[in-house]
Design a protein that fits this description.
Layout lengths: L10 H29 L3 H27 L10 H16 L3 H32 L3 H33 L1
The chain binds fe (ii) ion (FE2) (2 copies).
Length: 167
């Protein structure tokens, strides 16, 4: 099902499609994070990624809960946007030999992922409210808050030492 198929006619259809999109994305992120954990040298960055991997597993369960609440089976549809961000992460991090520069690159990639997730969850919360599903909105909001906190944590790590060490 693509964005321009007749399967998506209503805001409700679009909401479900976007849930399927982010469900796919979160699952891809759980596969990408272990590689990022393995490549990170800074212990705080490594443990930050580990923490976010376990949060991401919880976010997948939350999405499954929202699917059920909204009367749908959890299902994933390919999200080319997250595939592109992850592919770029792998390509760039595969080229960098210097560990400190690699850490800076990993943070930048992780923030691209977080920003993608923030835009998706922000939209899903708004649409859930519009559809009268405040129950779904509040579950999705918990994940949105986690993604924002992760993004802020990454900014703090980059600003406080990782970018300076890489320079
Ligand atoms: Fe996530
Ligand atoms: Fe995330």
């Amino acid at each position: 099902m693509g964005l321009f198929t007749k399967d998506i006619q209503t805001l409700d259809d679009l909401f479900v499609h976007t849930l399927q999109d982010i469900y796919y994305a979160e699952n891809q992120i759980t596969k990408a994070l272990p590689k990022m954990i393995a490549k990170a040298s800074d212990p705080e960055l490594k443990s930050g990624f580990e923490k976010h991997l376990s949060e991401t597993e919880g976010q997948i369960r939350r999405l499954e809960e929202v699917f059920q609440m909204h009367g749908h089976q959890p299902k994933a549809v390919t999200c080319p946007a997250i595939d592109g961000i992850i592919k770029e992460t792998n390509e760039i991090s595969g080229e960098i030999g210097d560990k400190t520069v690699l850490d800076a690159a990993l943070i930048a990639s992780a923030q691209a992922v977080e920003h993608y997730e923030i835009t998706r969850y922000g939209t899903l919360v708004a649409w859930a409210k519009q559809l009268g599903r405040n129950d779904c909105a509040s579950v999705l909001q918990q994940t949105l808050d986690e993604e924002r906190a992760t993004d802020e944590r990454l900014t703090r790590m980059a600003d406080s030492q990782i970018n300076r060490r890489a320079a």
